[in-house]
Amino acid sequence: MIKPYLTALILLWPTSFIFGQDATLHPWTDIQGRTLQASFISLDQEAQTVTIKWNGQVFPLPLNTLAPQSQALAKQLGAPAPAVSPSSASSPFDAIVAAIPTDTLGPEALDIEHDWTSADGRPMQAKFISLVGDQLTVSMNGGTNEYTLPLNKFSAESQGLAKVLQAVAKKHRPAPPKSSAPKAPVKPVKVAPAKVVEADLDKKHTWTSSEGNPLEASFLSADDSGLEVNFRGRPTKIPWSKLDAQSVALGKALQKLKKSLVPTILGGNEKVLERYGSGKWRNYNTYIESVAFEAGIHCSGNKVHFWLLKDGQRVQSTPFTVDFEGTFKDERGSWGSRKIVSLETSPPAVNDRRVTTIKGKWNNEGTFEYNFELSNAGMSFWGDAKEPSSSEFATSLRIWMRAPSVVADAKNATMEQIKEASGDGALYVDPMDGKRIKFPFDEKWLDIKNNLSKGGKKDVDYNPVKYAEFNGFPFGDHKIKALPASTRTGHLVWYSGYSQIFPAQGPTLIHRSIDGAQAMYDFKNAADYKDRLKIKKSECLKVQVIRGS
Fold it and tell me: Which of 210, 229, 260 is the C-terminal boundary of a domain?
């Protein structure tokens, strides 16, 4: 198969100086039987390639991709010319380089990356720096890495390319005139250390490149190799060499400040988990900070708080909460919940732990295991519990998620205030049966349900649901989607709360196993539902944070 590219060296050679070229068209057939008409340019016996000219373009072809008759044709046309005496060119490329007109290439050839090939055929892209004797220096990865290698480590074509570029460099990079006067030592530019405060760790800064170009981004981290910033919602690494002195000073000052703010850690006991004792994550056992959100497992051992982020700042002051709870109903149908009386485990307080397992005991002598999984994409929750048969009322394990209220005092707020705070925010639910339903935050629960009943949905509970989703103005550009990992064995419902008027006051989602839900509906026979205390990993509650623009 003919490769759809030209080697860099052949592109640089004027056709009038290509040795062995033949304007006659010959048939060239590959091993798959495909034939084209092209003229012969040259044969490289060492590299086992024949170079042809087809439709005005020059292509190198490996001999082993051609049919036997075409290989024979290449060898016939490429029969070596009479030997060149030692007093002539030291390599076949020197004569070519010497014959190239000085105006063939401009200085821009020294500023771009070229295709190079090693002597054993491995390709790479690199920018030419210099050729001194038999040592070729190139740079890679935008100038981050620079290498000096013997010229014989490259293929014959790449050796020729190096000599061509060296000829260009001699013309466009003239050596500075020699002076007998000693050079004055270059004084380093002194930059005063940047003064930063804790608030600077979260806000946007203007970073300036070494070429004077500005970049607006917030600080993430820094190390010996460079700076990492949050640029348009994506972590971006910048080498120190690409920044001006002021930006380097700012980056290093922020990293020094960040290290100085490492919080203290307090030990755990049967009442509380090991937790951070100071700093942003005070009273949390572990936390994760991603570009779209941040979340922490509270030291109480049964809940997670999470906040959405935009440009490194929390979108809302009050977090979402996801909470494990053992619930039951008494003989009158009144709700009750099991209290945690002791914690049997206390995982160490850390950042970015993937899965955290908390074990403990309820006040009815029942035991529990809560599992939290935190990742950059979102969170997952599952658990298991056991209780003694002597328990007066059977318990059901549930996970419930509460959205924060976006209106401080909705009952006394005007509709104008409600609409201003709510924007286009809404809760969307997708029932197991029926179409997706939207609950705008700036409408009343009762009005929404009345409007739905006009469409023939009166007396429908709209539960359980396949998923529930929050999105719109109060949540920035992001979406929060809650769903059971399995709708066959998981049971997710939503409700508006006992005293809520608007969805802006924060809807609640409840997730159980199928048995757990049935136990609460049939609470007098709740003990008959054996899996009421289990929410398996395969039916966990998943909370996904879908990043906006």
Answer: 260
pLDDT digits over 385-418, tens only? Answer: 999 988 889 999 999 999 988 887 777 888 888 8
d(CA 411, CA 420): 15
Burial 502-512 (b: 16+ CB within 10 A, else e): bbbbbbbbbbb
Over range 63-89, report the average pLDDT: 69
The phi, psi pair for 21, rounded to 5°, reads -65, 150
Helix 92-99 and helix 156-172, axial crossing angle in degrees, nearest 10: 30
Report strand pairing: 350-351 vs 284-289.
parallel
414 within some domain = yes
**Whether residue 375 sits in one domain with residue 254:** no
Amino acid at 143: G
SS (H, E, C) 461-492: CCCCEEEEEEECHHHCCCEEEEEECCCCCEEE
- How much is the CA Rg of the chain, to the nearest whole Å? 36
Measure the N-to-C terminal CA separation of the chain; round to a whole number of Å.
43
Domain end among 245, 260, 275: 260
Q: Are residues 230 and 290 in the same domain?
A: no
Token look-up 């035991």 returns: 367
Give how far Cα 64 sits from Cα of 30, 257, 381, Å. 9, 62, 58
**Helix or strand holding residue 247 (H, E):** helix 245-260
pLDDT in tens, 170-185: 877 765 555 555 555 5
